[in-house]
Amino acid sequence: MKLKRRRKLVTYLNILDQPVRFNPFVFSRNFMLWAFLGLLGGIIAGAYWIGLEFLTHQLAIFSGWQVIPVMAICGLLAGLIIHFIGDPGEIHLIVNNIRFNKGKLDPKNNPSMVLSSLLCVASGGSLGPEAPLVQVTGSTGTWIGKLFRLKGEELRSLSIAGMASGFTALFGAPLGGSLFSLEILHHKHAVEYYRAIIPAFVASCFSYLVFALIVHLGLGPIWDLSAYEYSGIFDFGYAVLFAMIGTAFGWAFIFCTKFFKSIFEKRPMPIYIKTLIGGILLGIIAFYLPLTRYFGHHEINQLLSANLSLTLLIAILIFKIIAISITVTSGWRGGFIIPLFFVGATLGLIIHQLFPTINLTLAIVSCMAAINACVTRTPMSTTILLATLTGFGHFIPILFASLTGYFLAPRIPFIGSQMEKE
Fold first, then answer.
1. Is the pLDDT of residue 422 over 50?
2. What is the value of pTM for the model shown?
């Protein structure tokens, strides 16, 4: 029976491999494959998001000093999952596999990534769900590609399309998510994998559609920063100036991460001990500064609506950078893109409090763009993502800020695998 099933499968695959004889359109069989991957990616992202929201609400009942043991226990459990089920790696490994492993992302560690990241993100770690989603949807693309016997650039393109569907589902920006999946792979040549652009666009659109249906996602901005009026050519100069300040804090984050990495690597220890220590430290920070807890998706709106003092904003800025660094280096799983946007928003508010006459919205968006472009080396997609997420309708000031962050970034990328084997 098994042999017959395999023969039938091979027969069907051979039929699919045959070219379509009468097709006067650009539309082809590949489009169906990209669309199917996008639909599957949207379902995966929707299921992950529902599970994350449920677990977050369950753990949110603990407050005050209880945050410390809760985050410590969640860190320990996440470390035990990674230790016994398998280490899923981080964004460095994803980039490395796409570039140097023929575009193959291994799905065998997806259970470990999903379970550990759910615990880390839901309990209040300063990392978001973008990296886990990209790992799972990207490896799904690899699996589908192997099923249809794709090789070389076609397989790599399908893996990248899977990554794009994961980015898009979370950010709600098909164009920005597609470009981000390409741009993050190489810090200099964003179009090195130009063959994956159309597959990424198609998968992103279908992923966004399904994800929006599952979680009832609207089309409006997540963080409303649309109240901006262009006041003249000097706005571009202000955007560059704010971006330079944001880039300086991008450097600070990179050095802070290297510092904590050296501490955690000084003495070899099991991964679950590292995640336990990280959970305790993060719990202490969250106890004294509750706004630093979680990855910032909802907290940015709280930050913008609250009238916080300058001293408190400075404390939030410093300890949020420390919290992200601890989360990254102590073995907790997740992505740092949205947390960096939170840091940029806090910095913009501080600048506005110091200089009340400047445009608040321009300061916030410029700092958000610069710090993310500095760390991730993604100026084009950062511009599009922020315009979508904030409702900031003027692309050019954001682009100026993103390019400033990109060109003033450290020569050696924070994501080391972006630069290897050039």
1. no
2. 0.87
| DSSP label of 335 | B
Question: What single letter denotes the amino acid at residue 168?
Answer: T
The count of other CB atoms within 10 Å of the CB of residue 63 is 11
pLDDT at 80 over 60: yes
Q: What residue type is assigned to position 26 of the chain?
A: V
Q: How many whole angstroms separate alpha carbon 281 and alpha carbon 324?
A: 11
Helices then strands, each counted (H, E), the chain:
17, 0
Q: What 8-state DSSP symbol labels residue 103?
A: T
Contact 381, 176 (CB under 8 A): yes
Q: Report the 10 Å Cβ neighbour count for 395.
A: 13
Q: How far apart are the C-alpha atoms of 96 and 156, rounded to whole Å? A: 12
Structure tokens at 215: 């979680």
* Rounded Cα gap, residues 292 and 351, in angstroms: 19
User: Which tens digits make up the pLDDT trace of 234-266?
Assistant: 888 899 999 999 999 999 999 999 999 889 888
pLDDT of residue 413: 78
* Nearest by Cα to 294 from 35, 111, 56: 56
Give the confidence band of 10 by pLDDT, cuts at 50, 70, 90: low
Which has more pLDDT, 149 or 76? 76
Residue type, 187: H
Give Cα 272 to chain centroid, integer Å: 24
- Residues present in the chain in total: 422
* Beta-bridge partners for 335: 128
At 128, is the secondary structure helix, strand, or coil? strand
* Residue 197 exposure: Cα atoms within 13 Å on the Cβ side: 9
Tokens of 158: 């399908």
Q: What backbone phi and psi angles, to 5 degrees, belong to 335?
A: -115, 155
Q: Which pLDDT tens digit goes with each residue over 327-378?
A: 989 888 888 888 999 999 999 999 999 999 888 889 999 999 999 999 988 8
Residues sharing a CB contact under 8 Å with residue 418, sequence separation 6 or more, in sequence order: 95, 184, 185, 186, 187, 377
Please provide the DSSP assignment of 67-88 as one string. Answer: HHHHHHHHHHHHHHHHHHH---
Q: Which amino acid is at 193?
A: Y
List of residues 6+ apart from 275 with CB closer than 8 A: 75, 76, 78, 79, 82, 120, 330, 331, 332
Query: From residue 339, how far is each of 31, 244, 317, 324 by CA, in Å?
Result: 34, 19, 11, 7
Predicted local distance difference test score (pLDDT) of residue 9: 61
Give yes or no for a contact between 386 and 368, defined as CB atoms under 8 angstroms apart.
yes
